[in-house]
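Recap from last week: sequence in, structure out.
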Amino acid sequence: MRDKASWMEAARSNPDALTVDEFLAFTHPESSAANQLALVDELYDKFDRDGDELLTEDEFAVLQTEGNEDETVVVRQDENERRAEFRKSVDLNGDGRADRRELLHYVAPQSPRHSEHEAEALLALADGDHDNMLSLDEILAHPDLFLKSKMVDTGRSFHDEF
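Predicted structure tokens:
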């Protein structure tokens, strides 16, 4: 059923056949331009509060959830981390705003932020003595964690059928 749904998503021109681009979207949805554009649109829907199609650091960092009628809740959890991520990974030209081009780079699977997040997660999970460094013993104590990591097993990152 999952494969059929993926096929139907990719088959835009003919439901019974895929073009080369559609086949790539079917087998590698993470690299599909249409999927990446959809992710950017979702970012705008979620964060672009003034609707100008430019994300500011405040819009990206300060999360808001809608409540009843006039009630809006501001969530400041990890705001400093989100601000740092905006400056480092989203706002590529440093002008304080992220346009569609910058957001496309941000969501692209080739973006270095994905491997940075994976490395941070591995460090947090395996750093037993909390010195922000991994020793050989700490790595050997968690072999499955590292061998199943997206950084080591890249096929698993893109193809869960392996």
